[in-house]
Write a structure and sequence with these properties.
Blueprint lengths: L1 H37 L12 H23 L7 H5 L2 H36 L2 E3 L3 E3 L1 H4 L1 H22 L13
Antiparallel strand pairs: 1-2
Length: 175
């Protein structure tokens, strides 16, 4: 199980690297768009009309790709004031409750996201803006990301079961 968890961690790191590449690409694209709008380097080209649309999609992809990685590293949003104020054992129980609720939410979003992506694919729905793309391309990322989050929730629960009966020490906002 430890090897599986380590391999999964490497997969999430690869997702994060892809997200970094997307941010770099998006930055270069926006700079090129601004430059081409303000300096007529290429005759007849006044910016990249599609850059806003690509940036929107890239921001969404970056969010979906990094969410499981951030959860694994304990760098997600976490309100832990109550966990630090209650006895350790009770804080540990609260950790279990939130992990179970988190897993349930992730699985639910995975299910509905997959249904939406499949329905879009079957209907042949298209997103018509500056670019015309199949709608399911972006919709399909949601269930994949939330499936990855679900798996990470299971690994978190395993780590919690094997750890001291106390709240986690990652992402602690109080001393």
């Amino acid at each position: 199980m430890n090897r599986l968890e380590a391999a999964y961690g490497r997969l999430l790191e690869a997702f994060a690297l892809v997200a970094c590449a997307l941010v770099l690409g998006m930055t270069l694209m926006i700079c090129a768009d601004v430059l081409l709008r303000n300096v007529r380097i290429i005759p007849g080209v006044a910016g990249l009309e599609w850059s806003n649309e690509i940036s929107e999609g890239a921001l969404y992809l970056v969010t979906m790709l990094t969410a499981p990685w951030l959860l694994r590293r304990g760098q997600h949003i976490r309100v832990d004031v109550i966990l630090r104020a209650v006895p350790k054992r009770l804080g540990w129980i609260f950790e279990w409750v939130t992990d179970i609720l988190g897993l349930a939410c992730c699985l639910l979003i995975t299910w509905y996201g997959a249904r939406a992506a499949l329905a879009s694919f079957k209907a042949g729905s298209m997103s018509i803006k500056t670019l015309i793309t199949p709608e399911w391309w972006l919709l399909s990322v949601l269930p994949v990301a939330f499936l990855a989050l679900s798996l990470e929730m299971l690994f978190r629960m395993r780590r919690l079961a094997l750890a001291e009966r106390a709240p986690r020490d990652d992402a602690v906002s109080t001393g």
